[in-house]
Design a protein that fits this description.
By secondary structure, the protein is of the alpha/beta class. It has helices spanning 11-22, 50-54, 107-120, 144-157, 190-196, 213-225, 253-260, 269-273, 276-288, 315-334; strands spanning 2-5, 27-32, 37-42, 59-63, 83-85, 88-90, 96-100, 124-126, 161-164, 179-182, 203-206, 231-235, 265-267, 293-297. It has ten helices and 14 strands.
């Protein structure tokens, strides 16, 4: 449920109404826009007398929300959420590119890739330290050593770092990580999501490859319900019957999610397509359809990569893509 407040309401009156709602066991979310203030109510609102609330002098209207996700709902928070990471903003018209290797392999590798993608315009560095793999015999990352190497690359380049968490017990290792990524396989690991809800840093939440958009938003809701509102949603492709590509990139997720939620939405074309020569086309299409950013896999030697070399761009290919992104964004700004 949301209560739309009249523009002339004073701060004291709004605080009084918020306290009144909270005294009835409801959680409140206050969204103050340029022309309108909204109080979102979370909890059992079935006993709230709508007529009584609408009759208050400061209330313009009361609306019930049917969607099960509340905090992530744009009706609660009409303005786009803008997340700041190491001086870079994402969301609300701010576009950023996250780039780096699928997995951290060595100091030379991660620093080389970090320097090259930064030179081409990437704002954040990605790299896997803990790698979920289908086979238990495949390379599963350098773990804590991988995070240390990412931090070394951050010290050398100044780039904020993004890396994936697999288990809540590893959280102490992520103390200096700028953005914690939740991969597709853990999108519905609800106990992990609850723990991340108590972390005071942005969470990059990837859509599961067999999950609906509502399920993605409900996973975001798990994090937000615990207090962490800084969530970046990521579409990374879903599983369909197609076999020529690794997954099927659902670009329709961008306009739909932008309608449903205030959270930033980015695209991962690398995991979606699984073939490096197709990444550029999908990345540019993602920019054109309104994504708030991209996460791209880049490796300085893809043929010898320990993980996902087939979908990784070389630094030269990434530089070419970055130029294409700039051109597409210039066109979008004129529309």
């Amino acid at each position: 449920m949301i209560a739309v407040i009249k523009p002339e309401a004073t701060e004291q009156q709004i605080e009084g109404l918020v306290s009144w709602f909270q005294a009835r066991g409801l959680k409140t979310h206050l969204s103050e826009g340029e022309f309108q203030t909204i109080i979102g109510l979370i909890g059992d609102t079935s006993k709230v007398d709508v007529d009584l609330v609408e009759g208050l002098d400061i209330v313009e209207s009361v609306k019930r929300i049917s969607e099960p996700f509340k905090s992530a709902n744009r009706k609660f928070h009409p303005r786009d959420t803008v997340i700041e990471i190491g001086g870079y903003k994402i969301g609300g018209g701010n576009f950023q590119v996250i780039a780096g290797p699928c997995s951290v392999e060595s100091p030379d590798q991660i620093i080389s890739v970090a320097e090259s993608v930064k030179a081409s315009g990437a704002a954040l560095l990605r790299g896997g330290a803990f790698k979920p793999r289908t086979s238990p015999y495949a390379f599963q990352g350098l773990r804590s050593e991988g995070i240390e190497l990412l931090l070394e690359a951050k010290a050398r380049t100044g780039m904020p770092i993004v890396t994936e968490i697999m288990n809540a017990v590893h959280l102490p290792l992520f103390e200096h990580v700028d953005v914690i990524q939740v991969g597709a396989r853990n999108m519905q690991n609800f106990e992990l999501l609850k723990e991340l809800g108590q972390v005071k840093k942005p969470i990059l939440l990837k859509r599961g490859y067999a999950n609906t958009l509502q399920e993605l938003l409900m996973s975001a809701e798990y994090i937000m319900a615990e207090g962490n509102k800084d969530i970046i949603l990521c579409e990374r492709g879903i599983r369909t019957f197609e076999t020529y590509t690794r997954n099927t990139l659902d670009l329709s997720a961008v306009p739909v999610l932008r309608d449903l939620t205030h959270l930033p939405v980015i695209i991962d074309p690398s995991h979606a397509i699984g073939v490096s020569r197709y990444v550029k086309s999908l990345a540019l299409a993602a920019v054109a359809c309104g994504a708030d950013g991209l996460i791209i896999e880049v490796h300085n030697d893809p043929q010898n990569a320990a993980c996902d070399g087939a979908q990784s761009l070389t630094p030269e290919q990434f530089a070419d893509l970055a130029e294409g992104i700039r051109r597409i964004r210039k066109v979008i700004e004129t529309l």
